[in-house]
Amino acid sequence: MNDHCGHCGLKYQIEPSFFYGAMYVSYGLNVAVGIAAFIVSFVIFGTTIEQSFLSIIITLVLLFPFVLRLSRNIYINMFISYDPKYDPKAKM
C-alpha cells in the first residue's frame, strides 16, 4: 500500500498500527462474502455441505486482496472525509 495519496498527499498511516482497526471491517466483509458464497453454492446450485464449505474457502482466498483493500478504504473513510473540491496545488 502506498504511504501517501498520489493526488492530495494525504499520509495514509495516520498513526502507528492505524489499520489494525481495519481487521474488524475485513472480518465483517469476509463473513458477508462467505454467507453469499454459501447461499449461491448450496441454495442455488444445490451442492452438498462439504462442497459448499469448499466453495466458501476458495471464494475467500480468491477475493482476499480485494477485501483487504476495500476494508482499509472503508476504515480510513470513517476518519477522513473526502472533499471533491480540494486542490492540493492551490495551497502551494
Question: What would you say this structure looks like, in words?
Answer:
It is a single chain. With 92 residues, the protein is mainly α. 55% of the residues lie in helices and 0% in strands. Helix 1 (22-44) packs across helix 2 (49-62) and helix 1 packs across helix 3 (64-77). The radius of gyration is 18 Å and the shape is elongated. It starts with 21 loop residues before the first helix and ends in a 15-residue tail after the last helix. The model has no long low-confidence stretch (mean pLDDT 88).
Q: Give the termini distance in whole angstroms.
A: 26 Å
The geometry reads as elongated
Class computed from helices, strands and strand pairing: mainly alpha
Give the biggest beta sheet. Answer: none
Order of helices and strands: HHH
Computed over alpha carbons, the radius of gyration is: 18 Å
Count every helix, treating DSSP H or I runs of 4 or more residues as helices: 3
**What is the share of helical residues?**
55-70%
- Mean pLDDT, nearest integer? 88
Strand content: under 5%
- Number of strand elements: 0
Low-confidence stretches: none
